[in-house]
Write a sequence for this structure.
């Protein structure tokens, strides 16, 4: 089975995807982490310069990404936490909008899905990566709530940041994701739409579980 989960930043996609994968003994493939890895490598090799697409593509081609459980490895280094910094988050859409980078990572994602039952989350899973997925979900939430969720995560890691600044960053990310030419954030016609505003992870999971169990019959 292939399950695609799309939606904007902070809608709860990754948390839900991991929970579904564990419950149904499927593999969770964090596609967003793959783009974060490329952004992380660019920052390490080129600094805060994302204006040269050719150099970014070169870095992407030389980057090996693998997953072990909840850990993310980039060129054999555990970068699970390093790729979640605000700086990496800010620049992830800068690499995700480059066609050659997307083509490279999408090919890897599709290849993996050929031989595994997968749950994938991202911006264009149902529209581009797995257009024939058995189930497609689109999770959304009010931007303020998404910012509050992100602030809580950062506070727990000791990266205190003003709520308004986080909200602005999320709104900018939303704009970049929706308006990029390659693999923009879209809600496909056959997606099951769930608004996660005001809902717990368990409530969203139970709502999605109804559709998954029906598809498994």
């Amino acid at each position: 089975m292939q399950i695609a989960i799309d939606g904007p930043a902070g809608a709860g996609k990754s948390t839900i995807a991991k929970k579904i994968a564990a419950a149904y003994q499927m593999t969770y493939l964090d596609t967003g982490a793959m783009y974060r890895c490329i952004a992380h490598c660019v920052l390490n090799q080129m600094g805060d310069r994302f204006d040269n697409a050719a150099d970014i593509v070169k870095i992407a081609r030389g980057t090996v990404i693998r997953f072990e459980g909840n850990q993310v490895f980039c060129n054999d280094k555990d970068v699970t936490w390093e790729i979640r910094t605000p700086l990496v988050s800010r620049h992830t859409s800068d690499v995700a909008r480059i066609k050659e980078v997307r083509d490279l990572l999408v090919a890897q994602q599709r290849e993996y899905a050929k031989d595994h039952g997968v749950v994938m989350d991202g911006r264009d899973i149902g529209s581009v990566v797995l257009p024939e997925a058995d189930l497609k979900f689109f999770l959304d939430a009010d931007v303020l709530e998404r910012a509050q969720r992100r602030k809580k995560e950062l506070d727990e890691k000791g990266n205190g940041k003003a709520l308004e600044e986080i909200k602005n960053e999320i709104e900018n990310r939303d704009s970049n994701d929706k308006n990029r030419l390659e693999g923009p954030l879209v809600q496909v016609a056959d997606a099951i739409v769930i608004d996660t505003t005001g809902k717990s992870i368990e409530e969203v999971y139970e709502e999605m579980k109804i559709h998954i169990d029906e598809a498994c019959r």
In short: The mean pLDDT is 92. Residues 12 and 21 are 14 Å apart (CA to CA).
